Amino acid sequence: MSESRTPTQVRKTALAPDVRRLDERAARAWTERMAVRPLGGGRYAVDSASGATYVVDLPAGTCTCPDYQIRGERCKHRRRVAIEITTRRVPAPGKRAAVCDACGVDTFVPESEGAPDLCGACRLEPGDVVRDRETDDRLVVARVTPERAHEVVIEGVGETVADYATNEGYPLDDLVVEAVYLGDLARRESPRRYSFPLSRLQRVDDAAVVDRDLRERATA
């Protein structure tokens, strides 16, 4: 698992593109040593090479530096924040840095999210249509829980999700996903939710053919 890097651990680094065709502010944004630290809400602290720290507010399009405050220019600090976001060194507004709860890679997730932190490869959302890798059945995700497969006991069976026979081979610490079979959604007023290890379910591209009302019923 890679080590997560917090904002206080970010070093002042200089980037190295070909800046010959850039204007002065853009060139300085690319080449000067600065450290960008996300503050949340689309605001970023920029530690400059001079030792001064300025705050860039991307949604407002402002910076606390003299170049913006006095001259109204799009300063090197705002440009540097944009560069760092584009190169995925810092999260974009509305996102925060996190470690994926499923695979352990560094990723960016929504700031306000209360669900498990998942990267793009592992991420499942309520309403997503998924395929059961064991049976090829289609299901609709109802909820991604923070519990692990070895912690959740299946009601009426007395075994954990990890111990259940058809889940053999999947990680014991897989996150547990609650999902509803598509057939049950179509036939039953209150379809039952089943628990699966996250890695047993694969997101599929045929979600568009599943009635929206059925997907909403699965997550209700």
List keywords for this structure.
17% helix; disordered N terminus; SWIM-type domain-containing protein; 220 residues; metal-binding; zinc-finger; alpha+beta; 11 strands; Znf_SWIM; 5 helices; zinc; 26% strand
Protein topology:
Layout: H1 24-31, E1 35-40, E2 43-47, E3 53-57, E4 62-63, H2 66-69, H3 76-86, E5 95-99, E6 106-110, E7 129-132, E8 138-148, E9 175-181, H4 182-187, E10 194-197, E11 201-203, H5 212-219
Antiparallel strand pairs: 1-2, 2-3, 3-4, 5-6, 7-8, 7-11, 8-9, 9-10
Helix pairs in contact: 1-3
Protein name: SWIM-type domain-containing protein
Pfam family, one: SWIM
Domain SWIM-type: 54-86
Précis, in short:
InterPro entries: Znf_SWIM. With 220 residues, this protein is α+β, with helices and mostly antiparallel strands. The protein is built from five helices and eleven strands, in the order H-E-E-E-E-H-H-E-E-E-E-E-H-E-E-H.
Describe the fold and architecture.
- The protein is α+β, with helices and mostly antiparallel strands.
- The protein has two domains: 1-115, no CATH class; 129-219, no CATH class.
- It contains five helices and eleven strands.
- A five-stranded antiparallel β-sheet has the order 10-9-8-7-11. Strands 1-2-3-4 form a four-stranded antiparallel β-sheet.
- Strand 3 and strand 4 (62-63) form a beta hairpin.
Q: Which residue ranges are poorly predicted, with pLDDT under 50 across at least 5 consecutive positions?
A: 1-8
Shape: elongated
Number of helices: 5
How do the strands of the widest beta sheet line up side by side?
10-9-8-7-11
C-alpha-based Rg, rounded? 23 Å
* Element-level helix/strand string: HEEEEHHEEEEEHEEH
- The tally of structural domains comes to 2
The oligomerization state is: single chain
Query: End-to-end span in angstroms?
Result: 35 Å
Largest sheet: 5 strands, antiparallel
**Beta-strand residue percentage:** 25-35%
Number of strands: 11
**Mean pLDDT, nearest integer?**
87
Helical content class: 10-25%
Structural class: alpha+beta
Protein name: SWIM-type domain-containing protein
GO molecular function, one term: zinc ion binding
InterPro entries: Znf_SWIM
Keywords: Metal-binding, Zinc, Zinc-finger
